[in-house]
Amino acid sequence: MSEYFVIGLDIGSATAKAVLLDNEGKRLAFAVRPTGGRLVQSAEDVKREVLLQTGVSDDCVKAIITTGYGRDIIQNKTKSITEITCHAKGAYVMMPEIRFVIDIGGQDSKAILLESDGQVGRFEMNDKCAAGTGRFLEVMARTLGIHLDEMGDMAVRSEKSSKISSTCTVFAESEVISLLAQGEEIPSVVSGLCRAIAERVQALVSRVGVVPPVMMTGGVAKNKGVVNWLSKTLRQELIVPEEPQIIGALGASIIGLELIKRSKGSLDKIIQNI
Ligand SMILES: Nc1ncnc2c1ncn2[C@@H]1O[C@H](COP(=O)(O)OP(=O)(O)OP(=O)(O)O)[C@@H](O)[C@H]1O
Ligand SMILES: [Mg+2]
What we know:
Blueprint lengths: L4 E7 L3 E8 L4 E8 L4 H16 L6 E7 L11 E2 L2 H12 L5 E5 L4 E6 L5 E6 L8 H11 L3 H10 L11 H13 L4 H23 L5 E4 L6 H11 L3 E2 L7 H16 L4 H7 L1
Parallel strand pairs: 1-4, 4-5, 6-9, 9-10
Antiparallel strand pairs: 1-2, 2-3, 6-7, 7-8
Helix pairs in contact: 2-8, 3-5, 3-6, 4-6, 4-7, 6-7
The structure holds adenosine-5'-triphosphate (ATP) and magnesium ion (MG).
Adenosine-5'-triphosphate (ATP) binds next to helix 3 and helix 4.
């Protein structure tokens, strides 16, 4: 029977994620829900969901570590930690040999170089522009009238890849509409969009300088089209964990556990240690 539990909460611009660990670091449950602009509510929902899945009560949760865009507005947290640190920690825990993390979420893309001991070395983030992020794909899926989760397979199966020259989401959207009007097939356009993201992210990655092995995290890692194009553009194999979207929340939960272990179980001591 576990003595206590910790929760990592990653409140992103697109989705809220929770991971519940036991005191031995075993991942017992995770949950992902769209934030839909309701950061606090979605954080509460994913937290409840992991507790319900496992039957763990609130009192047995010894630390809640928050990360992501909404990390500071969550009440009752033990500590908030940046996404860079949490994604690096999550990736390192999954695979200690990982030296580079590419996280593509709904609003940000991040390129993070890890030292061999898992500490964050250099990193770069995109400039709050939707190009090169999941938001770009969301806008385009809507324009094309297709689902986000079918884009990856569609791109991978397409023999053709349309040239999308605009990097700006708004201009790229008009470009997509005119490509369709010229008779371009949807799969070819989708492949072109995945390639456009890959090229944008490659520029970010090259500012840091890629070192293999490379792990891709964030929801966009579920899109095989982007993964394939990025792998080709970088000339690197990309390791995609089974649940790439929860790596930040996993990292946050591990940091919570480390804080507790370091302070031998007292929450007051944890807070003093931070
Ligand atoms: N099943 C899926 N198939 C393809 N793409 C997906 C799928 N689920 C999510 N995505 C992509 O993942 C994106 C959201 O990723 P994620 O949940 O990592 O974002 P976030 O952490 O909320 O955002 P950020 O870190 O930028 O604040 C969506 O915009 C979408 O493009
Ligand atoms: Mg994120």
